[in-house]
Design a protein that fits this description.
The complex is a heterodimer of chains A (about 500) and B (about 500). With about 500 residues, chain A is an alpha+beta fold. Chain A has helices spanning about 55-70, 165-185, 225-245, 290-295, 305-315, 320-325, 330-340, 345-360, 365-370, 385-400, 405-415, 420-425, 435-450, 450-460, 465-475, 480-495; strands at about 5-20, 75, 75-80, 80-85, 95-100, 105-110, 120-130, 135, 145, 155-160, 195-205, 215-220, 250-255, 260-265, 275-280, 285. In chain A, strands 2-6-7-10-1-11-12-13-14 form a nine-stranded mixed β-sheet. A three-stranded antiparallel β-sheet of chain A has the order 5-4-15, with no helix packed on it. In chain A, helix 13 packs across helix 15. The radius of gyration of chain A is 29 Å and the shape is elongated. Chain B is an alpha/beta fold. Helices cover about 40% and strands about 15% of the residues of chain B. Chain B is built from 16 helices and eleven strands. In chain B, helix 9 links the parallel strand 7 and strand 8 (about 295-300). In chain B, helix 2 (about 20-35) packs antiparallel against helix 4 (about 50-65) and helix 10 packs across helix 13 (about 375-395). The chains are: A alpha+beta (about 500), B alpha/beta (about 500).
Chain lengths: ~500, ~500
């Protein structure tokens, strides 16, 4: 429920996505992350005199894939333009982008809303462009340094219509987009590495008004959680301002996650004049219908189709299927576990409840910790917990050898450290006590020490059994099956 | 050793017959470069040691029977805006002071592979902006025919080096006539190939959609030999034509019978054009007609808008292409700037000359949001109309014959105060750049002791055709053999 019922929130998102290419958009330099500054540069990246751009065919392929996966029209001819401005990160003095004639327009994707039912969000355009470099201001001197490793890295900018009406919808849209891009291999979309960055345009208007309010743009937010928090903070700000009789001024703001606060970057009084014009060093990008068709035909199963399949083939609840698919790698893991013999519903339950909760605790996005069917690996060098292990764990529970409680105790270690669940169960002595003789002895011990509870039971307080059960469970250190204990206790109480 | 360089084929014969050596040719070039070259201010750099070593290597190859190409061991100069690995590439600008290119331009790589020997880098108008070489940070070059006159521009240094017999061949670049106009002023042959024929990789961009590297030499045949070596598709240049290297040299048959030559009416009615020059062109046309060519008048109705459209498009692209010279990564950086904005402002204020600044400002203006439609977009429309004019003209003829310039070489300083009259010296040449056509300028006589240029324009891709006509004319005449008095 909106905290500001008088207003309709209008949000449009611009998402920058790094394409999963080996080399840069217009140069043969490799794409990397975290290497020594300026290791991945050519005369083109450095804008040396005489250098010329040459378009990377791999990037075009991925950009088209992004377009067909989001139901866009792919244009047979698109044009690269120069966006001129001075900045030290921008070696040429202009960024090569697409402007008047982009590669893809008029797409859409569907999100699931809390109010129930799917909602279609229109995509205005997807265009290709190159990333800028990075200024480093943290050196030992008072001079700034420039790292051009990132300069020229291929991006697509995905621009939505202002169709989103809440922070939750914005996040749902981003998650869906993220899942599509990862599923199709368009991008690794690793948010920590800045491969999926979002600018949110937020404005408020009174319900029923047709005209958009003045918007403020929240720049470069790099996690789903922060986007949601930032938009909520922005909505609060604008609503309070308007309530107090103020007027929203067009501005660009940043979001500081640590303090959960927005800060003003700059006021936009006038439109920037980037002096766009078609880049005369590049010829128009011409794509045949055959090529578009081939890329469409080769698309992998998209998240929506996968969700439907999970519901139908594995009998999953819609919400569980959506949660799994929403974190694409979790769905891969799910499928691998089912293939390894896990019962689908149980696997889905464990993944959507316990595993997601654990990831949340780790402050990891599911995609970060789950590289796919090969398993959980928090540390890229460390051991992994694979789908076979997960199926094995569920099998132990199913066979009554491990109680649900014990399995829950084991899970975090398995996720973090990997290993064989059966061996870990034995090392920790967690195997369920199913030997009825041993359980009866435990029950006798407890009964002998709890005359009060026995008396209550005799007086008709059937809940006394629960207390006694708890005592026996405690004695068994959680290794006993509660149903079995209940049965034994009731038999003994009634026989007294 | 002959006193003057002969044609490239004569030099090759002499080398093959061991009447001379590449070492001898290079030493002669270097000697003249530091003598007469100095007086003409045609070089910004001489590469003595590298050139001598390359000549020795060429001689060793020839001795071993492994000659690489018709240019193996032949000296040439290249314009200062064409980069060579390990050499300064200054574009005759202060802003590139101290800059050494870490890579070879494609043309230089091809020249190296062919064994040609670069002896030095030629003076030019700063960033190829100008028609007189007076915009060089190193001072103007001089015309070998009259040291008080301009050699033309912007490839004035390259052209004067050929005209003064320092080298038999040179490379220039032509954005609006920067090879053909100085060729006309200096009495040599200069060619702008079809746009995309020669890779621009390593040519420091002035206006990317117009720039083209081309050859300068004594004769059409020499230019053809050089063009064949430097042409061909280059994957490093997206605008490079997907065609193999040219073989124009073998297409020079001298035969023009059956060829239809168009004379653009508007080019002979240009206000301010010297009638004596127009007459030379008519005489040349008559000579070709006598050889069996057919003459027709053609119309280029939008020709009068060409210079205006050219200066809008060229300056727009230049303002963007020159943004990279900001003092951040290479070249000159202003001292003592207090902040980033000041660094840009001071670096660019100190580094660029007046003409470059004028064009950057003009280009920035025509691209700005409020004026884009009125200027840049309109200029592009004119460009389309000009192309259509040429298409229509070429429907009725094979090549066009025109003057190269409206007048002969002007005096140094005569036009520097008035940029607009300077811009008009490109009136006959800019259209070929706007339309992407091949064009060649060749000497067709003297007026008051100064060379006159005859321009042949062809259909796009028909580089061989323009060279064939130029070569045919040179077989009938000896204007290209006329030389200025020796200045040594």
């Amino acid at each position: 429920m909106s905290a500001h019922p008088d207003y309709e929130v209008v949000i449009g998102l611009e998402v920058h996505v790094q394409l999963r290419t080996r080399s840069k958009l217009f140069s043969t330099a490799g794409v990397s992350y975290g290497d020594e500054p300026n290791q991945h540069t050519t005369p083109v990246c450095l804008a040396l005199p005489g250098a010329l751009p040459v378009l990377n065919a791999e990037a075009v392929e991925l950009a088209i894939r992004a377009g067909v996966a989001t139901n866009c029209t792919i244009h047979p001819t698109s044009i690269f333009a120069r966006k001129n401005y001075f900045y030290p990160d921008l070696p040429k003095g202009y960024q090569i982008s697409q402007f008047e004639e982009p590669l893809c327009t008029d797409g859409w994707l569907e999100i699931e809303t809390d109010s129930g039912g799917p909602k279609r969000i229109q995509l205005t355009r997807i265009h290709m462009e190159e990333d800028a470099g990075k200024s480093l201001h943290d050196g030992p001197t008072d001079r700034s340094r420039i790292d051009l490793n990132r300069a020229g890295v291929p991006l697509v900018e995905i621009v939505s219509e202002p169709d989103l009406r809440s922070a939750e919808e914005a996040t749902a849209y981003l998650r869906k987009l993220h899942a599509i891009l990862r599923t199709t291999g368009v991008s690794d979309a690793d948010m920590e590495k800045g491969q999926f960055r979002c600018d949110a345009n937020v404005s408020l208007r009174k319900h029923g008004e047709a005209e958009l309010g003045t918007r403020r743009e929240i720049k470069n937010v790099n996690s789903f959680r922060f986007v949601e928090a930032a938009i909520e903070a922005e909505v609060d700000y604008q609503a309070d301002l308007i309530d107090a009789g103020g007027e929203v001024r067009q501005a660009t703001v940043g979001y500081d996650a640590e303090s959960d606060r927005l800060f003003l970057m700059r006021l936009k009084e006038n439109a920037d004049d980037y002096r766009y014009f078609p880049d005369p060093d590049l010829i128009p990008l011409v794509i045949s219908q055959e090529r578009i068709d081939a890329i469409r035909a080769a698309l992998p199963e998209l998240p929506d189709a996968r969700r439907h399949r999970f519901e139908e083939a594995h009998g999953l609840a819609a919400a569980d299927a959506a949660k799994l698919v929403g974190a694409g790698a979790l769905a891969d893991f799910f499928e691998a576990a089912v293939a390894a013999g896990a019962e689908p519903k149980a696997a889905a339950n464990w993944l959507t409840r316990d595993v997601l909760a654990w990831l949340n605790e780790q402050e990891r996005e599911p995609g970060d910790a789950v590289p796919g069917p090969e398993g959980f690996r928090l540390d890229p060098e460390g051991p992994s917990f694979n789908a076979e292990g997960f199926a094995g764990l569920l099998g132990l529970v199913d066979a009554g050898r491990l109680t649900t409680k014990s399995a829950r105790d084991l899970l975090p270690d398995l996720l973090a450290e990997g290993g064989d669940p059966e061996r870990l169960m034995q090392e920790r002595g967690l195997e369920a006590v199913s030997d009825s003789g041993a359980l009866e002895a435990l029950a006798d011990d407890v009964l002998a020490s709890q005359p009060k509870a026995i008396a209550s039971f005799k007086e008709g307080d059937k809940k006394a059994v629960n207390f006694l059960m708890g005592q026996v469970m405690k004695q068994s250190q959680g290794k006993a099956d509660p149903a079995q204990i209940r049965q034994i206790l009731i038999a003994k109480l009634e026989a007294l | 050793m002959t006193e003057r360089f002969g044609s490239v084929s004569e030099l090759r014969s002499a080398l093959d017959a061991e009447q001379t050596s590449s070492r001898e040719l290079i030493e002669r070039s270097l000697q003249r470069a530091s003598g007469v070259g100095e007086r003409l201010s045609v070089f910004v750099d001489l590469q003595n040691d590298q050139a001598v070593a390359a000549a020795d290597a060429a001689d060793a190859r020839r001795a071993a029977g492994e000659t690489r190409s018709p240019l193996d061991g032949i000296p040439l100069v290249i314009k200062d805006n064409i980069v060579q690995q390990g050499e300064r590439a200054g574009c005759a600008s202060r802003i590139l002071e101290g800059y050494v290119s870490p890579f070879d331009s494609t043309v230089v790589a091809k020249l190296r592979a062919a064994g040609a020997v670069v002896i030095g880098r030629a003076n030019m108008d700063e960033f190829a902006m100008g028609s007189s070489t007076e915009n060089s940070a190193y001072g103007p070059s001089r015309n070998p025919w009259d040291l008080e006159r301009s050699p033309g521009g912007s490839s004035g240094g390259s052209t004067a080096a050929v005209a003064a017999d320092i080298v038999p061949l040179a490379l220039g670049s032509d954005t609006g006539g920067s090879i053909r106009q100085p060729a006309a002023f200096c009495g040599v042959v200069g060619m702008k190939p079809t746009y995309g024929r020669v890779s621009r990789y390593g040519l420091v961009a002035f206006a990317s959609s117009l720039d083209q590297i081309g050859p300068l030499g004594r004769s059409a045949a020499d230019c053809a030999t050089l063009l064949d070596v430097i042409s061909g598709h280059d994957p490093k240049d997206s605008t490079s034509l997907p065609e193999p290297a040219l073989t124009t040299a073998s297409a020079l048959t001298g035969d023009v019978s059956g060829l239809t030559i168009g004379l653009p009416r508007e080019y002979f009615e240009t206000e301010g054009a010297d009638p004596a020059l127009l007459e030379k062109v008519r005489v040349a046309a008559g000579m070709l007609e006598a050889q069996g060519a057919k003459l027709v008048e053609v119309d280029l109705p939008h020709a009068r808008y060409a210079v205006a459209a050219y200066y809008l498009i060229a300056t727009a692209e230049a303002s963007s292409n020159l943004a990279r010279f900001d003092g951040v990564r290479y070249g000159r950086r202003a001292e003592g700037a207090a902040n980033l904005k000041e660094l840009y402002e001071r670096t660019r204020s100190e580094g660029f000359g007046a003409e470059v600044k004028r064009r950057i400002l003009l280009g920035t203006y025509v691209l700005s949001a409020g004026y884009y439609e009125a200027y840049y977009r309109k200029a592009q429309k004119i460009r389309t109309l000009l192309r259509q004019d040429f298409d229509a003209a070429f429907a009725g003829c094979d090549v066009l014959l025109t003057p190269t310039t409206p007048e002969t070489a002007f005096r140094l300083g005569d036009k520097t105060e008035d940029p607009l009259t300077m811009y008009l010296s490109d009136i006959y040449t800019v259209s070929a750049n706007l339309a992407g056509l091949p064009g060649v300028s060749l000497p067709c006589g003297l007026v008051e002791g100064l060379p006159v240029g005859l321009q042949v324009l062809g259909r796009p891709m028909e580089d061989a055709a323009v060279l064939r006509v130029a070569d045919a004319y040179q077989r009938l005449t000896d204007h290209h053999l006329a030389r200025p008095e020796d200045l040594a």
